[in-house]
């Protein structure tokens, strides 16, 4: 699976709708302090199902919604659309997550309303999930470099797709 496009609206500092095209290969994000680099990575995690406010650097679920500035009023929703190449038969995958103040968050996959759990399974298989080591956040680069060989191997194995098998097994055991 490869993330091809990302659309953000009302998500953290991305108040106006923004669309990013992600080219094949390694992608780095550069820019001045506070311009939204980390917010971008959080948007990717969020649309893939991240729900822990701690890893979203916020106090609550709704903190991802643009909170307003002296010049701009706050928004009442945040939406992130992720378009990916599913890999297998070149079919595109579109995942949408949207949160509205006071109404919680909802997901759509290829136009259909789905549960958070379904989204987790989509990305568990693809090894691209919110906790995937394929997403390297600020400060984590040092951890990867400093890791012992065995730890680093585990990170790479997870990135290569073994984590997906783990989630599927847990899901199967619950049935
Ligand atoms: P650095 O180089 O310092 O790591 P960065 O490019 O990673 O910076 P971010 O942390 O992504 O920057 O963005 C921080 C900005 O996002 C801050 O200006 C902060 O006020 C803004 N921000 C975060 N959450 C919200 C929100 N809910 N509403 C409005 N602005 C927000
Ligand atoms: Mg940052």
TrEMBL record:
It is found in: Cytoplasm. ATP binds at residues 32-39. Signal peptide: none annotated. Belongs to the SMC family. Contains large globular domains required for ATP hydrolysis at each terminus and a third globular domain forming a flexible hinge near the middle of the molecule. These domains are separated by coiled-coil structures. Homodimer. This is Chromosome partition protein Smc. It comes from Novosphingobium ginsenosidimutans. The chain holds residues 1 to 175 of 1142 of the full protein.
């Amino acid at each position: 699976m490869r993330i091809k496009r990302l659309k953000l609206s009302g998500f953290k500092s991305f108040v106006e709708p923004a669309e990013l095209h992600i080219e094949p290969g390694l992608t780095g994000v550069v820019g001045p302090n506070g311009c939204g680099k980390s917010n971008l990575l959080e948007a990717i995690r969020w649309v893939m199902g991240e729900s822990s406010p701690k890893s979203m650097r916020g106090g609550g679920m709704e903190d991802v919604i643009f909170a307003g500035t002296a010049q701009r009023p706050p928004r009442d929703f945040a939406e992130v659309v992720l378009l990916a190449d599913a890999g297998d038969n070149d079919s595109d995958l579109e995942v949408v997550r949207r949160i509205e103040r006071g109404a919680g968050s909802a997901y759509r996959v290829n136009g259909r309303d789905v549960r958070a759990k379904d989204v987790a399974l989509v990305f568990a298989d693809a090894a691209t999930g919110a906790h995937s080591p394929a997403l390297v956040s600020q400060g984590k680069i040092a951890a990867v470099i400093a890791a012992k060989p065995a730890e680093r191997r585990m990170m790479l194995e997870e990135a290569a797709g073994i984590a997906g098998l783990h989630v599927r097994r847990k899901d199967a055991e619950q049935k």
